[in-house]
Specification:
The structure holds 2 protein chains of 2 kinds. By secondary structure, chain A is α/β, with parallel strands linked by helices. Chain A is 31% helix and 23% strand. In chain B, 41% of the residues are buried. The chains are: A alpha/beta, B mainly alpha.
């Protein structure tokens, strides 16, 4: 099976006051049709930047794809024209955002906003698009969709708005759905419902999902594979169960250890909850030829400061960018 | 696995924005009164000439007949023309110029402000420098020059007023665009494939409208004043009556027959005041910063 999306040696540069910083540095991964892949990492590690780059929505004049390719369905998106990207956005690749409270336009009804996407990409008539909007709201399990379709966003709760966002994102049956921390702003019970909904919709539509999150629990539940990002670089990549079972990068290890309830067997002895000391380096540090995690790492040796770690592949499909990956 | 039961989430009680705005507007009693008055003036301007069909240019009586004494409610002017007929017919011209100058102002201002605020960079630099150029022009002088050069027809006067007053609208529109373009729903629209044109006028502009509406309501008032100023100076179409023109042509007799300038002056004052009060009420209703919940 050929991959749906192949990112090869992607490098994204942001122009800051202190010069040019590579916020994504030599990132490669593939996404298969219908697969859920999760991006994990602290804030400022480049997860959202990756998502924006896939959509061709890097901040204008500040960010650019400096090197590498984003190959979607055989087409290189990093070279595609604005017009082509516009046709792809919302149609073949769509995105839902973190804040359902602010990511819907307050002056239009939910139905108008969903219908707008359908009309723009699928050329549906006003009437057909409206009927389709009701269908979609039904599909995301908004009760009484027929009357809620003419509600304004402020008439809905946070969970309902996020469902409406999902309905809008799935309107054109995209091949990839990028969910950028879709539940961070919602309370816990609603979070579970949203993840449940995403899982079901993936089964129905066959869309691949890129899930960006801090929530290791969500990753374990939703995703088949995960990428751990640190300071714009890939730290670790592989099947979720393998990584959680045996992380090969000290950063992944730290992230997993600081989640209180990830143990599969509750009868096992619980160890103390730990934190990953320190913070993500500033953009100025990005791109240095050394391990960027070194300052926070318990396994620090001279090799870590001497050069950037290379990728170590393991037989189970896991790979980690750490000099000590085998030893962990 | 059984799917967890989805509880119907509570719907937050909120009013439709329009209902809410009207509720706020209604609280401002003077604005409501002013709106009523404005409706009355508009009615008079549209239907007055049919209800009181005296020709405003016809000399119907002796000059300087004081109001209410010789059968003329508002008296006659220095040529013996019926002042009431002139006021009624002048209302149409004043309101029309006020409205069309405001429309022109909004059209230019919104276009310039939207382009500058949306595209930023070089587009913004150029457009805002042009805006500043028009801002520093002495407005009355510039429009006088335009009218004097190209003739004092109503469209030209409207144009002359519009061309010197659009800058405020442009600046407001630009600042709203600068704020709104960074909001998440604009990014979300972009992510669903909206074109730039659609983003500008379909997504951002509807959200930027409240302050623009307020400003353009006030613009109608200031355009009426501007027109009065121009026609007071004689820069007006001599074939139509306007309030400013009545004042202008009677100004020599201000000491002998004060009412000939007072009456049109009061008409202008009342109309502009009413428009300002309505604008104020709109501001209360639409400006989120003033809204007390």
């Amino acid at each position: 099976m050929s991959p749906l999306l192949e990112v090869k040696n992607l490098r994204i540069e942001l122009t800051t006051r202190d010069g040019v910083a590579p916020v994504i540095d030599d990132l490669s991964f593939t996404l298969n049709p219908g697969e859920t892949m999760s991006f994990v990492g602290e804030s400022g590690c480049g997860k959202s930047m990756t998502a924006l780059a896939l959509m061709g929505l890097l901040p204008e004049k500040v960010g650019r794809v400096a090197a590498g390719n984003i190959i979607f369905d055989g087409e290189d998106l990093s070279q595609a024209s604005d017009e082509r990207l516009r046709a792809i956005r919302g149609n073949e690749i769509s995105m839902i955002f973190q804040e359902p409270m602010t990511s819907l336009n307050p002056v239009f009804t939910i139905g108008e906003q969903i219908a707008e996407v359908l009309r723009a990409h699928q050329g549906l008539s006003r009437k057909a698009a409206w009927a389709q909007s009701i269908e979609l709201l039904n599909a995301v399990r908004i009760p009484n969709a027929k009357s809620r379709v003419s509600d304004y966003p402020f008439q809905m709760s946070g969970g309902q708005r996020q469902r409406a966002m999902i309905a809008m994102a799935l309107a054109c049956q995209p091949k990839i759905l990028i969910a950028d921390e879709p539940t961070t702003a919602l309370d816990v019970t609603v979070q579970a419902q949203i993840f449940d909904l995403l899982t079901d919709l993936r089964k129905q539509t066959g869309a691949a999902i890129i899930l960006i999150t801090h929530d290791m629990g969500a990753v374990a539940e939703m995703a088949e594979r995960m990428i751990v990002m640190y300071a714009g670089r890939k730290a670790e990549l592989g099947p979720v169960d393998q990584i959680i079972e045996h992380p090969r990068h000290p950063y992944t290890k730290g992230l997993i250890e600081c989640v209180p309830h990830i143990q599969s067997d509750p009868s096992l002895e619980r160890h103390d909850l730990v934190e990953v000391p320190g913070i993500v380096p500033s953009l100025r540090e990005f791109g240095k030829d050394q391990c960027l995690f070194a300052s926070r790492c318990a396994y620090l040796t001279e090799a870590c400061l001497a050069s950037r770690p290379t990728e170590k592949l393991f037989a189970n499909g896991q790979s980690a960018d750490c000099w000590h990956a085998e030893g962990l | 696995m059984t799917r967890p039961v989805i509880h119907e989430e509570e719907t937050p009680e909120a009013q439709h924005p329009f209902t809410e705005a009207w509720g706020m507007f209604r609280k401002n009693k003077s604005a409501v009164a002013a709106l009523g008055l404005l409706a009355l003036i508009t009615f008079g301007a549209i239907f007055g000439p049919y209800l009181y069909p005296t020709d405003p240019f016809e000399m119907v009586w002796m000059p300087f007949s004081p109001p209410g004494q010789e059968g003329f409610l508002l008296g006659t002017d220095y040529l013996g023309r019926d002042l009431l007929a002139m006021i009624i017919n002048g209302a149409k011209v004043s309101l029309m110029i006020g409205l069309s100058a405001a429309v022109m102002t909004v059209f230019i201002g919104v276009t310039v402000g939207a382009l500058a605020g949306f595209y930023r960079g070089i587009v913004e630099e150029v457009l805002m420098r042009i805006t500043e150029f028009f801002q520093v022009l002495p407005t009355l002088l510039f429009s006088m020059v335009l009218v004097a050069l190209f003739g004092a027809s109503l469209p030209m006067i409207t144009f002359a007023i519009g061309i010197v007053s659009w800058t405020a609208v442009a600046r407001i529109t630009r600042s709203e665009f600068l704020r709104i373009r960074e909001l998440e729903y604009v990014m979300a629209s972009r992510a669903s494939g909206a074109s730039n044109l659609n983003l500008m006028f379909g997504v951002i502009l509807p959200n930027a409208l409240p302050p623009i509406i307020v400003q353009s309501a006030l613009m109608v008032g200031s355009a009426i004043l501007f027109e009065a100023g121009l026609s007071f100076l004689g820069l007006t179409d001599p074939n139509v009556v306007s309030w400013g023109q009545i004042i202008g042509s009677n100004r020599q007799y201000i000491l002998d027959a004060g009412y000939t300038v007072t009456i049109p002056g009061v008409a202008i004052f009342v109309t502009v005041l009413a428009i300002s009060l309505v604008g104020d009420g709109l501001n209360d209703a639409l400006n989120p910063k003033l809204r007390q919940r």
